[in-house]
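Structure ticket #2291
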Amino acid sequence: LSDLKNCDTIDTDADGNLVCGTDGGGSGGSTTLSAVQVRRTTTFTLTTSYQDLTFDETDLESDTATLQHNDTNTDEIDVKAPGLYMITYHISANDAAARSTLESQVAVNGTALSGSYLDNRDYQDEYIPSSTSFLATLTGGDVLTLQARRGAETNEVIDETMMNVVKLDGVQGAQGGKGDPGDLAKSTTDTLY
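Resolution: structure written out below.
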């Protein structure tokens, strides 16, 4: 049994021998998700055209072979591996003098990703907090940017604009057996009080 240390599961092979299995849940075959989280800690004056927002902080970068905040072009997150990704961002703006509009989206290689668009409006001197999460299928070599623009008024993106990207991975386990449907001819009714 000493060969079975750090197994996710213990299975049997075709000869009935105990062997390590992997379902991704234990220390033997656990999966670490590739993720990056970037943040802007300073204000940014918006224009009426979409602009890529730069990020001055990298809070998390777990696997640079898959995802990386670009050190040179700090508005970019470089995708290095194909797959399904969950993207989340939070952005906030304010105009002290007038009603303001904030539109934002995530672009891949300069083109807006479906499901990433947000459009918010406020009244004078109110903050416009906006957040969204969505899924996207990306390929190696894709570049992600967070873009924002304002309406006719003047407003700024404020502290703590943030974007995170997580590659959704996992270890696929073996196909389970067919479950027992039970006796469909019999049923009981319980009364709850």
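Closing remark: Confidence is low (pLDDT under 50) at residues 24-30.
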